[in-house]
Amino acid sequence: MKYINCAMVALSPINRHKTHQVMVGGVAIGGNAPLVVQSMTNTDTSNAESTTKQIIELFEAGSEIVRITVNNESAAKAVPKIKNNLVKQGYNVPLVGCFHYNGHKLLTDVPECAAALDKYRINPGNVGFGEKRDKQFDVMVECAIKYNKPVRIGVNWGSLDQDLATKLMNENATSNSPKSAEEIMREALVVSTLKSAGRAEELGLPANKIIISTKVSRIQDLIAVYLELAKRSNYCLHLGLTEAGMGSKGIVATASALGILLYQGIGDTIRASLTPGVGESRTQEVVVCQEVLQTLGLRSFLPMVSACPGCGRTTSTFFQELAGKIQDFIRNQIKEWKKVYPGVENMNVAVMGCIVNGPGESKHADIGISLPGSGEEPIAPVFIDGKKAHTLRGTKIAEEFQTILTEYVVKKYAKP
């Protein structure tokens, strides 16, 4: 396994692993295109109304491509309705159909579904079994060619082609230098992915219509497999842990795995496969992806708010409340701001809790406020572009700072 050199500088597009560019709807993936955020619905696709609603929710949160389950005929027949619902409401969202087991049948029996989708997701481990596997895989690829659609060939650890895995295990057993079972399973993932992509090309699907992925749930395996994929091919790469988990565990695991690969220039589109809590919004996975990309300096989605963690000097919750209000305010405003104030997503805001690091951090931000710590005089200097511009006092500091922030955006980012 490779380790990151701490002396590495921030990535720029030229450092990325060179891959073919694939168009999914109107969204470019790979090549020199910006990294793309994806998500997936968890509604019953046959319910066109609820699925449309969640797609819009994910798209509004920043998901540039949305995947939906197509698992039966009623779901397949609902796909054109969902697409029409989106168009009627003014949303041009690229839709990916996720097929398992019966995708060959659904794509041929419901041609309107095949035509409406912008991409097909094929898992070679469960397109069929025995002699039917290759034939049914071929049918799905031929549908993609017929309707001029790209495909994602997504191999999963939990549904790996067992015939291939057994073959590699047997070959390894007779080798003079046998590898570990873990190494063989990783190799099986890579071989299955590249073999399937190669077969798709043999059938006539060009490389610029193919995206590949190998989803596993362990960070070490994911990194090792994608390093090999990047070494052995130039296919567009979709990154993500499968079954990342819930809460902080899922977020940390996803950020760690994706961060390591992205920092080495590997990856063209990402998803955070988080398990939402009961009643929680599905959009958290979109936010996590955006924050991973923005933290690495690969894309900017909304202004970053820096806030100190708090300590014994900040026993008051005032600065925490202000940081939360400012973060929420920015999220609520960013969609409209982007239309009028180009570049506002690159703005840095600091909300600091006391005099120790507050003034310095605020000076380094585009706009920042250093709040008084516990027992300190209730004076809050505001710094704009490195210089002290205002001093706020009293009980309306939050509201006054929000007004100053809005004025700053208008002044700095307004179109000429």
Description:
By secondary structure, the protein is an alpha/beta fold. It has two domains: 275 residues, TIM Barrel, CATH 3.20.20; 110 residues, Sulfite Reductase Hemoprotein, domain 1, CATH 3.30.413.10. Helices cover 44% and strands 18% of the residues. It has 13 helices and 17 strands. It has an eight-stranded parallel beta barrel with strand order 3-4-5-6-7-8-9-11, surrounded by five helices. The protein has a five-stranded mixed beta sheet with strand order 13-14-15-16-17, with helices on both faces. Helix 8 runs parallel beside helix 9. The radius of gyration is 24 Å and the shape is elongated. The N terminus is likely disordered. Converts 2C-methyl-D-erythritol 2,4-cyclodiphosphate (ME-2,4cPP) into 1-hydroxy-2-methyl-2-(E)-butenyl 4-diphosphate. Its cofactor is [4Fe-4S] cluster. Pathway: Isoprenoid biosynthesis; isopentenyl diphosphate biosynthesis via DXP pathway; isopentenyl diphosphate from 1-deoxy-D-xylulose 5-phosphate: step 5/6. It comes from Candidatus Jidaibacter acanthamoebae.
Which short descriptors sum up this protein?
single chain, 416 residues, alpha/beta, TIM Barrel, Sulfite Reductase Hemoprotein, domain 1, 2 domains, eight-stranded parallel barrel, five-stranded mixed β-sheet, 13 helices, 17 strands, 18% strand, disordered N terminus, isoprene biosynthesis, 4Fe-4S, oxidoreductase, iron ion binding
Q: Count the domains.
A: 2
* CATH C-level name of the largest domain: Alpha Beta
Distance from first to last alpha carbon: 50 Å
- Physical arrangement of strands within the biggest beta sheet: 3-4-5-6-7-8-9-11
Task: Compute the number of strand runs.
Answer: 17
User: What helical percentage do the residues reach?
Assistant: 40-55%
Radius of gyration: 24 Å
Shape, principal axes of CA atoms? elongated
Low-confidence stretches: 1-14
The fold-level CATH name of the largest domain is TIM Barrel
Strand/helix succession: EEEHEHEHHEHEHHEHEEHEEHEHEHEEEH
- CATH architectural category of the largest domain: Alpha-Beta Barrel
CATH superfamily of the largest domain: Dihydropteroate synthase-like
Overall pLDDT level: 91
Number of helices: 13
Structural class: alpha/beta
Biggest sheet architecture = 8 strands, parallel, barrel
